[in-house]
# Entry
Amino acid sequence: MKDSPVAIVTGASRGIGRGIAQELARTHRVVATYRGRRDAAESLREETGVEIFQCDVSSAADRAALIEFARARFGRLDLLVNNAGIAPRERLDVVEATEASFDELIATNLKGPHFLTQLAARWMLEQGRGRIVFVTSISAYTASVNRAEYCISKAGLSMSAAVWAARLAPHGVLVFEVRPGIIRTDMIARVQQLYEERIAGGLVPQRRMGEPADVARAVRAIADGLLDYCAGQVIDADGGFHLRTL
Ligand SMILES: NC(=O)c1ccc[n+]([C@@H]2O[C@H](COP(=O)([O-])OP(=O)(O)OC[C@H]3O[C@@H](n4cnc5c(N)ncnc54)[C@H](OP(=O)(O)O)[C@@H]3O)[C@@H](O)[C@H]2O)c1
# Structure
């Protein structure tokens, strides 16, 4: 693994990020970040040998410390996966939803990855190469009236990905957006039963809920360079949810 490429995966202690870190650990030296669940991050480290690092992506100091850690430890960065994200603490009708929740989601889901990417981009511009993935959501274009702040944060993140893709492509740094559909993780645990029923009823053409590994395979294709003439590509890892049918 001595000269193998280096990846940072944010929010890798659980869920989709963990699946991505597990997949990448087969070929990359991985810095897997977590926010509060050190126990989960440690179990990932034991299982895969990744480095773990505590980083709240909404904190500028934490973002800078993460990049410094990767620089000091490995001296190169081949792939940044902006995966960390949160759902609203409470699903509230947009008529009732609070500014505090809006601010929290924008800081974590949009501002954090946008500015973490700025730090990574400066480093990758020096290197003249690199790849960056933004994990957004079907919520980037699907309006849910009981979690508007989540949808708005993901719609904004989709544009952040496009801006970075356009800015960095001339310099050999490729940016991609991966849009998961409904994926079995802690994030959707409270609504899992409802979603299972809607999927069985036809909401997802492939008729099953996604797993973190489904998203991880899309990131694998990017990490392996299979999409290297596809700057800015949006990959719908959603079982066909995005298809309009009549
Ligand atoms: N599950 C879905 O159906 C679905 C669908 C579309 C998009 N997504 C997106 O996929 C990404 C991962 O979601 P998931 O379902 O895997 O969520 P999850 O199971 O709740 O895991 C979230 C991960 O993000 C970390 N995290 C939370 N807040 C953070 C912060 N402020 N700074 C840094 N890390 C933070 C958590 O760390 P700790 O373990 O330390 O708390 C955890 O590792 C999110 O961006 C989400 O919006 C999910």
